[in-house]
From TrEMBL:
GO biological process, one term: negative regulation of transcription by RNA polymerase II
Transmembrane region(s): none
Organism listed in the record: Callorhinus ursinus (Northern fur seal)
Encoding gene, per UniProt annotation: MAGEB3
Protein name, entry field: Melanoma-associated antigen B3
Start-end of Polar residues biased regions: 58-80, 94-108
Location of the MAGE domain: 110-309
Pfam family, one: MAGE_N
GO cellular component, one term: nucleus
Sequence ranges of Basic residues compositional bias: 1-27
Region (Disordered): 1-108, 330-356
Listed PANTHER family: MELANOMA-ASSOCIATED ANTIGEN B3 (PTHR11736:SF53), MELANOMA-ASSOCIATED ANTIGEN MAGE ANTIGEN (PTHR11736)
Gene3D superfamilies, A to Z: MAGE homology domain, winged helix WH1 motif (1.10.10.1200), MAGE homology domain, winged helix WH2 motif (1.10.10.1210)
Length: 356
């Protein structure tokens, strides 16, 4: 090959390698940026229900896991006041400051009352009974009855982010409510029969971690997050039971999670993905809304994941439209149906050719 052509070829190869290197760096930077963007999330307030533990551990748990039943959410006035006969609670925040998580101290007079109301609501939920405002007011301490709207708001928040259960008003005149699970886990969300609390909130958190880790999270990723919720492998949790069995066996058998070995890993490592029932019963946007609720923000605050969730919603709409169009086209190909009313003997003779 002539020297000039060799020189041009060498220059072209160097240019191609340089472009490849730039592209590789850009991809790596984008991945690193998204990983860095992974939010420092506030674990759900698991201390809404009392539980018995040895005294030393109990004190430590109270200190570390007492979390917000927050009064802040998007669009709320920066100053709110709740006044009762012996109760006055004020919340102040600069209007220019972004909403932050408000941690309720143990001295908050409404925290204990809220916990009692949560227990009552879970009792009614497990027995599938209608909930009324009158019944709830019987549970609330008399001196805080004028604070009931705030107590109910906190209880509703706890039910949603801890148990994955929404409190919905069914009759505004009678002030009656019902509790609706975000997903259709068996036995009212407890997964297994008998005693226990709904596991839907835990599942929604795990689905969120999987989504934000690129739709596939290593087992290490999952336990790192669950440990922040004071949920540990091999240690029975007073709400979620034995967590390792729950997430690697029970939820896998129910097809809410997929648990598989990482390819070519030696020693074996494992990872989690959404299972088919998770795809059927929820969506990336709903999971993002759930996480936004816990962190007292809006889904769009999780920038790149919000865009992905929007795209996922659009694709689901397109798929639904396509399926409906296919169903309509198939239906139009069927021959005319036979009469539903039994025909007379004369009609049978005339129309016998229509129905073969």
């Amino acid at each position: 090959m002539p020297r000039g052509q060799k020189s041009k070829l060498h220059t072209h190869e160097k240019h191609h390698q340089a472009q490849g290197g730039i592209q590789h760096r850009r991809t790596a930077q984008a991945t690193a940026a998204k990983e860095k963007e992974f939010p420092s999330l506030v674990p759900p307030p698991l201390s809404v229900l009392p539980h018995r533990e040895p005294a030393a551990r109990s004190r430590n748990t109270l200190k570390t896991s007492q979390r917000a039943l927050s009064t802040k959410s998007a669009g709320v006035s920066p100053t709110r006041s709740y006044k009762g006969a012996n109760c006055k609670i004020e919340k102040k925040q600069s209007s220019s400051q972004a909403p932050l998580t408000t941690v309720q101290s143990q001295g908050d007079p409404l925290t204990e009352t809220t916990g009692v109301l949560v227990q009552f609501l879970m009792y009614m939920y497990k027995r599938k009974k209608l909930i009324t405002k009158a019944n709830m007011l019987k549970i609330v301490n008399k001196k805080y009855k004028n604070c009931f709207p705030e107590i109910l708001r906190r209880a509703s928040f706890s039910l949603e982010v801890v148990f994955g259960v929404d409190l919905k008003e069914v009759d505004s005149t009678k002030h009656s409510y019902t509790l609706v699970s975000k997903m259709d886990l068996p036995n009212n969300g407890t997964v297994s029969r008998g005693r226990g609390f709904p596991k839907t909130g835990l599942l929604m958190n795990i689905l969120g971690v999987i989504f934000m880790k690129g739709n596939c999270a290593t087992e290490e990723n999952i336990w790192e997050f669950l440990n922040k919720m004071r949920v540990y492998a091999g240690k029975r949790h007073f709400i979620f039971g034995e967590p390792r069995k729950l997430i690697t066996q029970d939820l896998v058998k129910l097809k809410y999670l997929e648990y598989r070995q990482v390819a070519n890993s030696d020693p074996a490592r494992y990872e989690f993905l959404w299972g088919p029932r998770a795809h059927a019963e929820t969506s990336k946007m709903k999971v993002l809304e759930f996480w936004a609720k816990i962190n007292h923000t809006v889904p769009s605050a999780f920038h790149s994941w919000y865009e992905e969730a929007l795209q996922d919603e659009e694709e689901q709409v397109k798929a639904t439209v396509a399926l409906q169009a296919e169903a309509d086209a198939t239906a139009s190909e069927y021959p005319r149906e036979c009469p539903t009313v039994p025909p007379t003997p004369n009609e049978v003779e005339v129309d016998s050719s229509h129905c073969g």
